[in-house]
Specification:
By secondary structure, the chain is an all-alpha fold. About 35% of the residues lie in helices and about 0% in strands. The chain contains 16 helices and 2 strands. Strands 1-2 form a two-stranded antiparallel sheet. The longest helix has 14 residues, at about 50-65. It is globular, with a radius of gyration of 22 Å.
């Protein structure tokens, strides 16, 4: 799959527009205590918070974010073991691309937190689009898919890259079905995943299976352990970073269990951001949506650079600084950026290695006479 609008599954993301409230001002302390305390010690070595303060922080964070769920259910596409098995295979399947060389995993590497860590991804014959490939992990929980939100869910999103001439470049949905039916091993897998259907091998069913697999690509981590009651899951510095993140308004855009991904926002809300990409306006035709993008989730953000919709920002520190400036109108110093980054690193979650392991794919049909 390709970059720009790929299996968003994300693609759904990397930090792009929404490090929107990433900004933050470091904790400013008032009163005479501040005068007597060495400035460097305030951010570099936070004191160990007392139990009551930690409990209050947890309660506040639970109301803003909430613990990451184990899956993102869709009543219209119930998750079953059979769909997951098939969807996992199709996620890694290169034979449903024109070249036979790419798969969803090419751009959304499940062993690299669902991204390829490139500004934009290489698609058919090395073509590259204009947008960064967001992570597929936790993407099924988002409000919509792709940077511009043009797909309402991962079921719809799964179809886009396969037929995109820059990405997987298949000429049509029927041609995808022809290729799948030419691989004998897929017939019983589709039949098991979609029982009772006379002809279960369809383009829509392939997308539904991939989506079912993606709906359990969640990555709980230290932050969730803290929210569940483990005071030691976050270091004192990370707890202070969480306070800063909340107090400075980052939660305006980055909230919910995915810490983002729940709304659309203008890139350059306070100070214009230099980009030629009009964002969601291209989808809606509404001038009010110019430069509006889906706010990306900050889950695993320390691992999913480069950042922003175009993948133009190499470091997380720079992304934090730019979002503070363009979204909040604030200039952050190095200590403030470090404080925020400390919390964001606690959003790196755990990937279930057995769930994302590459499966053995069905063999091709035997060649007559071979």
């Amino acid at each position: 799959m390709r970059s720009g609008e790929r299996f968003a599954m994300s693609r759904c993301g990397a930090v792009g527009v929404a490090l929107c409230a990433l900004a933050v001002a470091a904790a400013c302390q008032r009163g005479e205590e501040q005068a007597s305390a060495p400035p460097a010690a305030e951010t570099a070595a936070p004191s160990t918070p007392d139990a009551a303060a930690v409990a209050a922080l947890r309660e506040q964070a639970l109301g803003i974010f909430g613990v990451l769920p184990a899956e993102a259910p869709n009543p219209a596409n119930p998750i079953t073991p059979e769909k997951i098995q098939l969807g996992r295979m199709l996620f890694f399947e290169p034979r449903i691309t024109l070249s036979g060389q790419l798969s969803c995993n090419s751009c959304h590497g499940l062993d690299t937190f669902g991204v390829d860590n490139e500004p934009t991804s290489a698609g058919h014959e090395g073509q590259r689009g204009e947008r960064n490939s967001p992570t597929v992990f936790n993407a099924a929980l988002h409000i919509a898919q792709f940077w511009d939100g043009r797909a309402p869910d991962v079921e719809e999103q799964a179809k886009g890259p396969v037929l995109n001439p820059v990405e997987m470049a298949m000429p049509s949905a029927p041609e995808v079905v022809v290729r799948l039916k030419a691989i004998p091993g897929y017939a019983p897998l589709f039949a098991a995943a979609f029982p009772g259907e006379a002809d279960p091998i369809t383009f829509d069913n392939a997308a539904r299976a991939i989506a079912a697999f993606e709906r359990r690509l969640t990555t709980p981590g230290p932050f969730d352990a803290f929210l569940r009651g483990d005071d030691t899951a976050l270091t004192p510095a990370q707890q202070q970073g969480l306070r800063t993140f909340i107090d400075t308004g980052c939660i305006t855009c980055h909230n919910g269990a995915t810490v983002g991904g729940r709304m659309f926002q203008k890139l350059g809300l306070v100070e214009p951001y230099p980009t030629q990409d009009v964002g969601r306006e291209k989808v809606t035709g509404n001038e009010a949506d110019r430069f509006v993008f889906k706010v990306p989730s900050l889950r695993n953000v320390a691992k999913t650079g480069p950042y922003f919709h175009d993948g133009s920002i190499a470091s997380l520190d720079q992304a934090i600084q730019l979002m503070a400036r363009h979204q909040l109108g604030k200039q952050l110093d190095a200590a403030q950026v470090e404080s925020i980054r400390s919390f964001l690193e606690a959003l790196t979650g755990n990937v279930d290695a057995s769930y994302v392991a590459k499966p053995e794919l069905p063999p091709a049909a035997a060649t007559p006479g071979a």
